[in-house]
What does this fold into?
Amino acid sequence: MAEELQAFLNRIQQQGIQSGEEEARNIVEQARQEAELILRRARAESQEILRQAEKEAEKLVVNGKESLRLAARDTLLSLRHELQDRMQALFRQFAGDALSPKEIAAIIAEIIHKYHAAGNENLQIEALLDPERCEALESALLAHLGEKMKTARISPVPGISGGFQLRIEGEDIIYDFTDEALAEALKIFLNPKLTALLKV
It folds into this structure.
């Protein structure tokens, strides 16, 4: 009886050990599977994070290049406008300096001579210019025209700073030779060349 009891106890102990070992194996296997799953997820997440980081870096590079391109374009446009403004100011100054009362008188006298030569001796021409230069123009015109001076009239216009405008009797057009108009005309020729130099 004691032997049977001992055998029974040994069998229970053996079954307990086997059961414990099997449970331990199951726990270890389950832990291994969970560890593999966690590792796979971590790898997938790290690859996704890496992909996102690469995408962001690429976007930053593209945006940086575009920002640089736009900044360069804006700088060139700004430079072009600045150069145009400065050239316009120089043209105005040049036109104003070049068209002194003496030169204006020579131009008006030439126009009057041409009209008279064409048989329009009674034609009236009115010169519009800066009030401060009217007297000097009248003296210069008198020297050029003499008796024909009666066909020319000089009118002061406060808004004209340099150059002059011409109004011919019977015509609705005012011929504009002011420094502003001449500078604008010169600008038309300058712009394409300036634009070619500063291609954006």
Observations:
- Helices lie at 2-98, 101-117, 134-145, 179-197.
- The longest helix spans residues 2-98.
